[in-house]
Amino acid sequence: MQNTDVASDYTIKLHEQACLDPIFNCEDRQDFDFAHRGLIHRPDDPAIFDGDGDPAWHHAAFEQFLLGDAPDTVHSSLCRHALLNNYRGLFKVTDGVYEARPESLANVTFVECDTGYIVIDPLTTVKVAAYALNLFYGHIGKNPIVAVIYSHTHVDHFGGVKDMACEDDVRGGKIRVIASHGFVEWVLKEQGLAAEGMPSRNDYMYGENLPVSPTGIVDTGLGQAIEGGEVSCIEPTDIIGTEGGSLTIDGVDLEFMYAPGEAPTGMHCYIPRFKTLHVADNRYMYLQHARSPECSPDSDGNRRPR
Ligand SMILES: [Zn+2]
Known about the structure:
Bound molecules: zinc ion
Structural class: alpha+beta
CATH architecture: 4-Layer Sandwich
Strand content: 15-25%
Largest sheet: 8 strands, mixed
Order of helices and strands: HHEEEHHEEEEHEHHEHHEEEEE
Radius of gyration: 20 Å
C-alpha cells in the first residue's frame, strides 16, 4: 500500500516545476508586507481551547510545518498562501478600525464609536470570539459593544456573536444587531434545511476532518481552518433592505449597500468617519505567487521569509 505521508517522485517533480513556472512570482513579497501591515500584537498561545478542553483552534499545529522548509507534499503556491494566513493577531486597519486575524476561519472587525465599539462579523464559535475580544480589549481598551453587524449569512460571520453580545442586552435595546434583507431566512436554509449536506460539503471543500499536517489540512483558502466549539446566533434588530440604507450608531454614521454575492444575501458597509469600506467575502486579493523552496520563513510567522 502506498505511503500517503510521503510525496511521490511525480508530486515532488511537479512541485519543483511549479516554482519555476513564470506564472508564479516567487520574488514578489508585497503580499507579505500587506499581511504584516498594522500588526499590534501577535499572541504566542499554541491553541485556543473550547469548554471541554479540546482545541478549538490550532496555532502550533500549523506552525510545526509552515515555519520550516516547504514540505514536498504541498504545492508551493498553497504553502505560501498558508504562510500568509498564518499572520495572526490584532491589527490596526486605520485609526478607529481594528481586526483580529485569523483566530477563526474569518476575521472580526472592531470599530471605535463615541462610547463603545461596533463589531463586524463576530467569528464562528463563541470560544474564538472570546479570545479575539480579549485580545482587542487587552490592547485597545474595554468599552461596551453597542452594535453587531453581520455582513452576510455564512456562519463564520455570526456564530460567535453570543460571546460579544448578550442576548438580553439586544432585546433590551442596549445593543443593535444589523443584517441585510433575507438574513434569517438564509441562515435557516443553510444551517437548518441544508444541515444534512453541510458536513460532507465541508469535508470536500475544506478537508474538515483531516488532521492539520502537510498531508492533511494545510489551509482552507479562506483562512486556516474551521474552528470547533459552540455556534450561536442572535436575531437581527435592524434589517437593511435591498435599497441599502444609513444608520448612526453611537455617533458613527454607517452607509449600507445591499450586496449579495459570495452569499445569497449580504451587504457592504461604508464608515465615512474612518474612510473604510467593509465588503467581507465579496472581495479577495488575487495573486499568483509561489513559495520558492529556498525561501523558508523565520521562526516568527510574522516576519517575511528570507
Ligand atoms: Zn462568506
